[in-house]
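User: Good morning. I'm curious how adenosine-5'-diphosphate would be positioned relative to this chain. Could you predict the structure with it bound?
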Amino acid sequence: MPVLSVALDLPLHRLFDYLAESASTADIGLRVRVPFGRGERIGIIVDVASESEWPQEQLKAAGDILRDLPPLPADFFCLCEFASTYYQAALGEVLLQALPVGLKRLDPPDRRKARAVRKPDPVPPPALTEEQAGALAAIDLTAGFSVHLLHGVTGSGKTEVYLRLVEQALAAGQQALLLVPEINLTPQLETRVRARFPEAGVVSLHSELAEAARERNWRAAFAGEANIILGTRLSVFTPLPRLGLIVIDEEHDSSFKQQDGMRYSARDIGVFRAHQLGIPILLGSATPSLESWANAQTGRYGLLALRQRANPEARLPLVHILDTRKKALQEGVSPALVAAIQERLARREQSLVFLNRRGYAPVLACPACGWVSRCTRCAANMVLHLADRRLRCHHCGCEHRIPKSCPTCGNQDIHPFGRGTQRLETWLQAQFPAARVLRVDRDSVKSRKQWEAMLELIHTGQADILVGTQMLAKGHDFPRLTLVGALGADAALYAADWRAPERLFAQLMQVAGRAGRAELKGEVLIQTEYPDHPLFAALAAHDYPGFAARQLKEREEAGFPPYAFQAVLRAEAPEMANAIAFLKAAASLAVVSENENVMIYDPVPMKLARLANLERGQLLAESYSRPALQHFLPCWREAIESIKAPSKLRWHIEVDPLEF
Ligand code: ADP
Ligand code: ZN
Ligand code: ZN
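Assistant: Good morning! Here's the predicted structure, ligand included:
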């Protein structure tokens, strides 16, 4: 009798065999109901064979094979197999995470047809700038696989380049996949794409869609009815029958990296997928990741540059570095910034004060006894949120009421220390009582709806001073915004995390890019106690290449990525000793022969050593050769699986980790 090899959504590196009377190889790629344990599950048929390595009498019979969808295609399996091998993730988990929730339900809900949306009137494209035309000319959609990095300053019209490429793909009868960061999936971009291609069938795929809508869009993409797929990281796995172009906007953005469950980089998967299909992929950013920049420098990726803003009236903003060492600051704001905001108010222009820390203050403390508001479950402080009168841990989400007096000594005079966006908002409002101050961070914007409402307020000029975190930094055009002030930048300059300067530079460059997008001239004031730091000099000169060159040199000297390849093994347990003992056992199982060039470091606690009552340790494996590391990891993972660990210990491997 035919035997089905079925992938199930389990963290196990194996398939499960079932008997199925009338199955044939034509059923590969279909979903199937199978008995598992005491219940039933939905799996994906990966193979149909005439026999199993298990004795037939031990095999159970499969349930119904589901035929509401055509089979998942071979290239989809190939993509998921690559991800599974590269990231040491179980194939079943990779395959099933790519499907919408409704397709994995045992009792699928009844889906109604979507109402037809009114098609917008098409918006004609602008004439290309010379630089845009040059970039476009360099990409040949008919020439097979290529990777290009489009490095364009903020406002240089990268989106227009994407849209023209999409247009070419559509004309050739192909589908285009446009990946955007979670936060950047703005109504703005979606509206722009729909307006340009009203007839094309545009679907979006992101986590804020309701389950039914997501499934509907996924089906339309898979069936080839939708031609443009606009999605966040997970959509890189969507099976698309006629895919001809992949674009990754803001390719440096960390939201392309999945940080839990199956840990993968959608950007890297995108490059693999383009290679596999023999199609072009375009990565765009004003501040590319140093990995991509290095690839462009060595010629592995083509480099395309847009150095000017697309709107001929718009200039890059003037960036001033404000030395705050000798200045008397008020609530962390320098007199020069206050004066600059005042000027904008007088001219009815908008200002943005950027502080990448939400809440009122990072900690509440008692000066009498030294008590600080620590989270009892994490190695972190509880952040003071005055707006809703809570102390809240930003790591585990746990919260308390604000104590009226010190919990240890009873002192009634306890103080907030440091500042976050709420405190800044309160102070700015007191300072400029007539101004409309609007705070934009994850506390004030919890849903896409609220986000759209905020953007509307800003666009229609119903806010004078914006206070915000990096939420405000990306991809928005605010025509009346002419001043950006940045506070609190110094912490990242000398951080232990060697990626911190890269992130800081990108953030400041992005947020600075909000100023002066239209005819009005923009100005950026950056407060720092290290005015001579080369990072700021590069920023003031809008010199990303200079900054990147210096960073890459430092990384090369230190042997950090992209000059080395890393994987990290993490373990979490109620006791740190258990986690470290497990990691030590894992290290001793690492078979590292001389010529493989893989280094195993000592186990150490993670930077956030305790999260939600679990102690966390990690162990770094590193190599100067990616193939060597890739060769080493599967054997090591299998060896680790054999360790008898305490029942409450959890572990995982992350390849190409961004955070430690
Ligand atoms: P980026 O994504 O590079 O930051 P955008 O694509 O958002 O830049 O473009 C910035 C602004 O320039 C937008 O308002 C856009 O409409 C405009 N723009 C883009 N290309 C052109 C062009 N060729 N001519 C005139 N305006 C353009
Ligand atoms: Zn006290
Ligand atoms: Zn916590």
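The chain has a mean pLDDT of 94. Residues 375, 377-378, 380, 393, 395-396, 398 surround zinc ion (ligand 3) (CB under 6 Å).
Let me know if you'd like a different ligand tried.
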